Amino acid sequence: MTGRERVLAAFAHEEPDRVPQWCGASPEFLAKARRELNLPDTESVLVRFGDDFRRVFARYTGPEVPLSPGATSRTLFGVERAGYGYGQPLTHPLANATLRQIEDYPWPDPQWQDVSRIRAEALAWDRRYAILGGDWSSFWHDAIDLLGMENLYLKMYDAPELVDTLLTRVVDYYAAVSRRIFAAAADALDVFFLGNDFGSQNGPLLSPAQFQRFMLPHLKRLIDLGHAYRLKVQLHCCGGFEPLIPAMIAAGLDGLHAIQPSCRGMDLATLKSRYGNAILFNGAIDSHHVLIAGTPELVRRRTREVLEIMAPGGGYVAGASHDYILEETPVDNVLAMFDTVAACGVYRKG
């Protein structure tokens, strides 16, 4: 089977020839892997790891706004950030905004995203892989950036209509960008991949009631958009968010990435038995305690254990329990994970 066929079978909760593999990795890790494996480019690394996915992106062509002193980046919604990795917001520009000020805020223009090359880039892989597309659509994180996290929680109680308006304007932008992407290239895409981290190490960041009241309508809007173009929809969601999964399934979500078994409520056997027939799980091989801190032998053993739980019946994609394999992860451990999936994740027919 091709990677694309393998992935689509898993989404259909059928057993393909083997468990599909997902390699989400940081640029720093990929550069290290290229050096250590003596490979010429990133594509060669993904082939060596057996990655069954590829991803295409729109390109930002909008205005470039100079950064303030001390800032290292600026989001599309005007929030400047600084610090390790993606950094943290330096300000929350709508923290004290009125409804009118939210409406009048300088929201980004979806036309700033160039979608003209996406279809050709996706077809360049000749449909050998499952192609991820669509805007990342991190509306929960953008609301936190714009209002401040504690402030956002308070306004859910004190000014719910303001939160609704803010989220609507943010998702209006994301939906418009993805609609342009899909209109240009949906026939070359397979999965609408978006991301919002609704979980923490110790449980959901919102109660199920808060999630259903404020977040689910916007998530469903994006799910419905992907389905309108006959795409599978996969949500990246970190942390322990098990109490939110039933609502996600009811909204029509097809897949969840990247399952973190070290978080509260994310026991793999429980997830598989409760939800494995209704939604695809992606990830589940522990990044922190196994891939980063373990040995190749530990990685092989834990990978086999995860496969025994998650693989039966399909509906599973194997990979790390974090969206990005970080630079500090030993390349030998990642090889051990993917090579074990390739060897032990084979479905026996008949």
Q: Key features?
A:
350 residues, alpha/beta, TIM Barrel, seven-stranded parallel β-sheet, three-stranded antiparallel β-sheet, 14 helices, 14 strands, globular
How would you characterize the largest beta sheet? Answer: 7 strands, parallel
Shape category: globular
Overall number of strands: 14
Q: Could you tell me the mean pLDDT?
A: 97
CATH topology annotation:
TIM Barrel
C-alpha termini separation: 17 Å
**Share in β-strands:** 5-15%
Number of domains: 1
Alpha plus pi helix count:
14
* Helix proportion: 40-55%
- Helix-strand string: HHHEEEEEHEHEHHHEEEHEHEHEHHEH
Low-confidence stretches: none
Helix and strand composition category: alpha/beta
CATH architecture: Alpha-Beta Barrel
* Rg, alpha carbons: 20 Å
Topology:
Layout lengths: L2 H9 L15 H11 L4 H8 L3 E3 L3 E2 L12 E2 L5 E3 L5 E2 L9 H6 L8 E2 L3 H6 L6 E4 L5 H9 L1 H10 L1 H26 L5 E5 L3 E2 L2 E2 L3 H21 L3 E5 L8 H6 L4 E5 L8 H8 L4 E6 L1 H6 L3 H15 L5 E5 L10 H14 L6
Parallel strand pairs: 1-7, 7-8, 8-11, 11-12, 12-13, 13-14
Antiparallel strand pairs: 2-6, 3-4, 4-5, 9-10
Helix pairs in contact: 6-7, 6-8, 7-8, 8-9, 13-14
Write up this protein.
With 350 residues, the protein is an alpha/beta fold. It has one domain: TIM Barrel, CATH 3.20.20.210. The chain has helices at residues 3-11, 27-37, 42-49, 99-104, 118-123, 139-147, 149-158, 160-185, 208-228, 245-250, 268-275, 287-292, 296-310, 331-344, and strands at 53-55, 59-60, 73-74, 80-82, 88-89, 113-114, 130-133, 191-195, 199-200, 203-204, 232-236, 255-259, 280-285, 316-320. The strands form four sheets. It has a seven-stranded parallel sheet with strand order 1-7-8-11-12-13-14. β4 (80-82) and β5 (88-89) form a beta hairpin. The protein is globular and about 65 Å long.
